Fold:
Amino acid sequence: MTDRPIKALLPAGLEDLLPPQAGQEEGLVRRLSDHFAKYGYELVKPPLLEFEDGLLEGIGAAVADETFRVMDTASQRMMGLRADITPQVARIAATRLRDAPRPLRLAYNGEVLRVRGTQLRPQREFRAVGVELIGAAKAAMADVEVILLAAEAILELGIEDLSIDINVPSMARMICRDLGINTQVTDDLLSALNRKNSAILTELSREAGPVLLGLLDAAGPAKLSINLIGQLELVGEAALLRKRLAEVVNLVLDKAPNLNVTVDPADSRGFEYHTGITFTLFAQGVRAELGTGGRYLSGDGELATGFTLFTDVIMNTIVHPTFARRIYVPFGVKTEIRKSLQESGWVTVNGLVPEDNPTAEALRLECTHIWLVDQIHQLDLQTAN
Structure:
């Protein structure tokens, strides 16, 4: 022990993950990855750092403000610490897997680091787990597949009261473009829409304001929302996106009728590089989102869709499986016995030196059982308290 000041203070938004949480997170990632693999999603593992010009190319430009930069001493070029893994997967699909048959089904997991956290999620480093379906987004079933895959993965973790909010973040801009609204007024309209400031919408534009108000009023349960959006006078791209939205929502409800699905056609926050239908996963009583996903353009303009789940939020929401039983194996016990115990599902904690009181040592090391006189003995845990 030492009286010196502890020098383990970490920057805001970063933390050490200790036992048993570190092991629980690893188990969670494994469960999710195994679930995705059952649907044909194969694992890729991009690096934590890349050259800045490659990492922030294409859809990566949307997260440039969230990206830490460092200098590579070997090449004297700037590198970025990834803030999002999806742009990396898009790069892999457009380069290393360019000739692979489409659609590509890729899965990933890994740490991401962001310049700043949010009020709901102050963590700046967290584990991201997700999938990307690349090269088949023209089919409505591509959107449906990833929405249902995300929902099923969450539900299998035992999370109840799951809600999926489906969005079309590009619809409002399409409406403004179809109506010939200039860029400055469009930006002001979208800003007001994101703030849910209905009063200013009609003041800014008599043409687009009432339609955008209709988007705000249409937010709610999926079937009712689709009906209300269907009554809006939309043309051009916005009308086509409305048709796709209705198709996707109806397919999701048909395949998962018990799923709680809502639609918010006016919400575009958090979907910086998405171009079509997006979605967010929520659970009752949990402030932050469990994950987000949606349609975007991958490398070379290839249509894609996918989602990312956030383990830091999910970890605080699920009931974790109990760990394997821990048994203390005193010094000198034969290796064959230890191996036999491990094969039977025990976690063995080995004594490294002869102990006068192996039972006390087992309790000190937080074991529940001990191997004594060729038998397994359960420990009286109250003795340790």
